[in-house]
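Bumping with the actual sequence this time:
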Amino acid sequence: MIANPLYPVHYRFVDADGVRVFYREAGDPERPTLLLLHGYPSSSHQFRDLIPLLSDKFHLVAPDLPGFGFTDVPDARRYVYSFDALGETLAAFVDALRLERYALYVFDYGAPSGLRLALAYPDRVTGLVSQNGNAYLEGLGDAWEPIRRYWAQPTPENRQVVHDNVLNLAGTRWQYLHGVSDETLVAPEGYMLDTLLMERPGNKAIQLDLFLDYANNLTRYPAFQQFFREKQLPTLVIWGKHDPFFIPPGAQAYLRDNPQAQVELLDTGHFALETHAAYIAQRIRQTLGGEAV
């Protein structure tokens, strides 16, 4: 994707919550801010194609969550990896950047993390894009079964099953390619970078801790749904319909709490930006940027 020469992407760090948070930033800070929140096992790198397509319209900020990408968590911080902690770090991050108004783009892990941020600062959120960002029980697909067993019985044996089947190149590549009709659209550096970063000392234990803690997100779903009902934000729910983790009923469920939400299913898999970045950018411009359909 060719960068927008008028709005180059900057690669920065900021100290927040005792963490050195890496983030990408582009666009005029005077324009509406769109906070881009990645999922497992990726990082802000997953927005590399989307950012240039929106940088003339929005101020874009994409952090790497603790445990992912290039964000550095010092050992002395004694960080406990949970989704509550990720939400708290995001709150410290937006405060460190003095972001007082922003729309949220949430994907995968970015949904429970970003929606915790929304609950902490509900009046700051101006809009929502959920791209395979689940907030409803019916959105959990069959691919969660090994992890559900880990939730029910967090034994060393079940932890090892998740480790062996998920935390490797084959598992990561499968997440990128499953349900994609034209695999030549998926750049291999995405899943290769994710795998490389996962191999850092101690990182697989972090990921296993987050898999286990994901069960606590299900108990927060009612609070997230109440936020949708109360705020009635401009909302785009745009979903790779072949995602085995977050399935289409989870997209349609948003309409229960916000009947004005725009829900659209795309012919692709979990990482919809790998194949549909230009189209998703267009729909964001229409939904949040006020451009004509």
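The tokens above came from a reply further down the thread. The longest helix spans residues 215-231.
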